[in-house]
Amino acid sequence: MRPILSISDPDDPRVAAYRDIRERDLVGREGRFVAEGEVVLRMLARSGRHRAESVLIDAKRADKLSELLAEFGEDVPVYAAGQAVIDAIAGFHLHRGILAIGKRGEDPRAAGLLAGLGDGAVVLVLFGISNHDNMGGLFRNAAAFGADAVLLDPDCCDPLYRKAIRVSVGHALTMPFARLGAGEDPLALLKAAGFEALALTPVGATPLARLKRPARAAVLLGTEGEGLPARIIAGSTPVAIPMAPGVDSLNVAVTAGIVLHQLKFAQA
Predict the structure, then answer these.
(1) Contact, 221 vs 127, CB < 8 A?
(2) Which of 126, 130, 225, 238 counts the most CB atoms within 10 A of its CB?
(3) 3-state class of 261 per DSSP?
């Protein structure tokens, strides 16, 4: 069993990165992020892109987590404290009793990410997604329904925000993603990589069930309310999900799940 370092003082400088995490987030702070909960910690341990810098756990969980903690290298310190001390460090009651500070891996360029995908690839392309719950749900559905990657426009929030990681059940740490550069044309990028752009819109010309699956498909989703920019819809194949009368929209993460299931499984 790997050594675990005991913490008895909430002001111990070794755990300063965990202090008051509800009031702040480490995204943008030298590329660090917060991972929370056992499932997310497991995903971080297996991430090929991101790594853990340290782990903080409730001392009562040490034995149960021993196998998982062994997946981290010896250079990753593991700290343990009582529940009251952890709560004082975090700034709120942390009922899961498991936190980690992660270090973000290098962000790939969108063109390079697309070029490395195989035949039959399906990607999500997101525009203006600013809600962290939605972002987390999108990544969870992308993983569940077999998407190969996610592209984000410059206005999307960060998938490695603590809440987004938690809602994604850790899949934000394992799903390949890249952010489009400012001024980069997403439609031109997709076309150059051999992807057909499918723009989800309530006024789409093609009902989803009638859509012929492209050889390489890019599912384009906009923020709830405003939807996709008109120029993006105009340059894509518009697709609609038929709904009951009087209802013209779905939660964006739900939409992603329906479309990805149709593309990856219903037409397999």
Answers:
(1) yes
(2) 126
(3) helix
Q: Tell me the pLDDT tens digit for each residue of 215-248.
A: 999 999 999 888 999 999 999 999 999 999 988 7
pLDDT at res. 20: 86
Per-residue pLDDT for 27 more than 80?
Answer: no
Q: What CATH number does domain 110-266 carry, 3.40.1280.10, 3.30.420.340, 3.30.450.20, 3.50.50.60?
A: 3.40.1280.10
- The letter for the amino acid at 181 is G
- Counting every residue, how long is the chain? 268
pTM reported for the whole predicted model: 0.94
DSSP letter at 227 equals: B
pLDDT at 23: 59
CA distance 210 to 13: 59
Mean pLDDT to the nearest integer, 94-99: 88
Q: pLDDT tier at 200 (50, 70, 90 boundaries)? A: very high
Amino acid at 264: K
Q: Are strands 32-36 and 98-103 parallel, antiparallel or unpaired?
A: antiparallel
- Residue 191, number of CB atoms within 10 A of its CB: 14
Encode burial over 128-149: b for 16+ CB neighbours within 10 A, e otherwise: bbebbebbbbbbbbbbebebbb
CATH 3.30.559.30 fits 5-103, yes or no: no
Alpha helices in 83-171 (DSSP H): 83-90, 110-115, 132-144, 162-167
